[in-house]
Amino acid sequence: MGQITVVGLGAGTLDQIPLGVYRKLTNHSGIIYTRTKEHPVIQSLENEGVQFESMDDIYESHDDFESVYKNISEVLINKSQNEDIIYTVPGHPIVAERTVQLLLNQNRCDVEILGGQSFIDALFTSVKVDPIEGFQLLDGTSLKREQIQYRQHVVIGQVYDAMVASDVKLTLMEDLPHDYPVTIVTAAGDPQYERAETVPLYQLDRGFEFSNLTTLYMKPVEEEHLHHQFQSLRDVVAILRGPGGCPWDQKQTHESLRRFLIEEAYEVIDAIEEEDDDHIAEELGDVLLQVMLHSQIAEEKGYFTVDDVIRSVTDKMIERHPHVFGDVDVESADEVKANWEKIKQKDQPKPQSVLEGLNEALPRLLYALEIQKKVSKVGFDWNDPALMFHKVKEEIKEFGEALSNQSNNDAELEFGDLIFSLVNVARYYKIDPELALHRTCDKFIRRFQQVEAMLIEDQVSIEKASLELMDQYWEKAKQT
To answer: Is 405 part of a structural domain of the chain?
Structure first.
């Protein structure tokens, strides 16, 4: 096996290279391979007669950095099969060097690491920050929004050019104001060329010359800019429930909050009916608040946290979608549904009744729907809608007979049978009976309020208007 000796060139000047590394480079009689010649130390060593062969041309032959790095590592491995070689990189070989990581994760040649000063030391000196406060080092060429911890100092390396800077800018602007200050640091540690300039985020990729020695720095972001992040909501709820918080929030329990969860869910439905996206977002936020309050109450008692809530639903979604996260093939939504039910029952004890596990808290229209869904799974169902409509007519007749007999108890039962049969029809046609009734109530309210408005416009008192007159206005309202 050949050997590759990876040497770090430090952050900026020849003075940052250890004496032993300097001697190894200057005493080497052959070609030294380098990821890029765009580094001040390269020129200084060339002036002393050291010969370098760079990998800069490989950057031009690929559309993404990962492919570039894989190509460079492959070239180096192949060259090492014939001779031991030296490969130089900016900074320290282990810090923000993807090619070195690829070399370390292969077994075709040995890899030796020789140090050089990391740009991290020089960077924190430049921006005058103590890294003990906590910082995060990220790669600008593969930056992902979910990686960034804005409550720490953030350092983004590998910002080689304006294209990378533009991608970084767009990622950061998903969370930060367009004018948030970002510091661009180049050649940190080089007294001659070091430059640090703070610019508003939207100007990050404009009018600045980027290079291999460019790094971005951001101080911890003020909390006011992070209110859209999950942790901020969690902190707010904990404060409301904690000492010195809100008396109303502090006294809530799972039981006292039950009705609010139902109310907020229906307000989401109203917003959806209005087709108002801003209102939907607001109402979904109110539902999320209920989830957070229940989770905070449980956390205070040591039962579970919102992390457990999220973990539970995440694991469930992965487990119940093997056609997405596994190797199961499905042909239709019906197969997805069948797999879902099969997986759902996998670890459950065999029920004594198909009607076990019904949710007693459901509104009774939805409760009736759930009953029918469960019994339909074992074949207790009609496939012919004509039979369902016949049952509806039969229940109407029986309801009428109960009324004729002046039996309120029987009438109530028969009326329930009638509604239950109508739920069956709705289910067949994939209509949610609860939503259908919800929409009808909304429609009735709108029309009756139109009737009231027309009566006022015509100076007619609603208390004195006859049913016939109001019905005429009702028909007018239906036409609008």
So the answer is: yes
